[in-house]
Amino acid sequence: xxxxxxxxxxxxxxxxxxxxxxxxxxxxxxxxxxxxxxxxxxxxxxxxxxxxxxxxxxxxxxxxxxxxxxxxxxxxxxxxxxxxxxxxxxxxxxxxxxxxxxxxxxxxxxxxxxxxxxxxxxxxxxxxxxxxxxxxxxxxxxxxxxxxxxxxxxxxxxxxxxxxxxxxxxxxxxxxxxxxxxxxxxxxxxxxxxxxxxxxxxxxxxxxxxxxxxxxxxxxxxxxxxxxxxxxxxxxxxxxxxxxxxxxxxxxxxxxxxxxxxxxxxxxxxxxxxxxxxxxxxxxxxxxxxxxxxxxxxxxxxxxxxxxxxxxxxxxxxxxxxxxxxxxxxxxxxxxxxxxxxxxxxxxxxxxxxxxxxxxxxxxxxxxxxxxxxxxxxxxxxxxxxxxxxxxxxxxxxxxxxxxxxxxxxxxxxxx
Length: 416
Description:
Elements: E1 2-10, H1 18-30, E2 35-44, H2 55-68, E3 72-75, H3 81-91, E4 94-97, H4 98-109, H5 113-130, H6 155-190, E5 195-200, H7 206-214, E6 231-237, E7 241-247, H8 257-262, H9 264-272, E8 275-281, H10 287-301, E9 311-316, H11 323-334, E10 339-341, H12 350-361, E11 365-373, H13 377-385, E12 389-394, E13 398-406, H14 407-415
Parallel strand pairs: 1-2, 1-3, 3-4, 5-7, 5-8, 8-9, 9-10
Antiparallel strand pairs: 6-7, 11-13, 12-13
């Protein structure tokens, strides 16, 4: 479908570079195999409640849409239901905002039952917000039953009720998935297998690194959200250490809140990971802003992203830098305790990364005795779930529990 991509710049300025933001929006559209025939940043002095853009800009875009035979206009921002409806009428074309576009990509990429359910849940929540005065045909009424039935419910109320019922069923199904994943995590802990999770901005090279470390062939393409469903594989590390490596969905700036909520079940593996590898495309001009977006989402999920958190930064794609800058980047990373500069594509720095992972996972362990009261059952269960208990004695006041754990385990215990 012939597509036009617009990136609104509110107040004439943007936190992100306008060209980079527009390029990312075009990449999102191309990830759906859309034919992007034109793209442009659009400065906005102020947002219009009815159409977002001013009347002159709306008319100019309408002329461009008609002349170019464009069937879809993507607005790289958030549109209200009223704005979306009015723009579709003015431009006589389908209009998608950033949230709708990302939902379409996720809907196409989800493969597992869990992924399909999560995408559908996010899509239904998005649709639910679009029912508010979005289409006039939804305002007609259906008559009630009997003489005292009254005017009956409007079509919009019936549609909202149907959406709510479907959302409830999906949440129940996802609840079962969450319990199953929890059982799998508990089984891994009983086998004392540490979990290493890959996180990062979409297209940072997580799947390529996953393949390099595990010898797998997970899909890895130069495309936003090339992979969506989480994948786990066993890896062997120096020192005879074995671990489970988990590849997760990529993050992105302005990730729709519906998707953050819907994919929380998938990202619970990140919350439970013994170590998190934050993979960054160090060659990208906005690498620091991308890293801030990832850290923000991790913090929202409850992950400690501070210097004492379970986080190692992986500066990927140094092969894309010029030789002098690549060498300087590798030297800088080498001087930092929890940072590795690598190229997942060429293999440069991979052995250093493997040694870093092994060192972090083999942190010194300590034995100590905790005194828990009978009312601290949640703390006791947490210790047993993570296979940290060496011995337990019941007392008149509660339990004396001997544990064998690392500083990281102790820190996590203190946070519950």
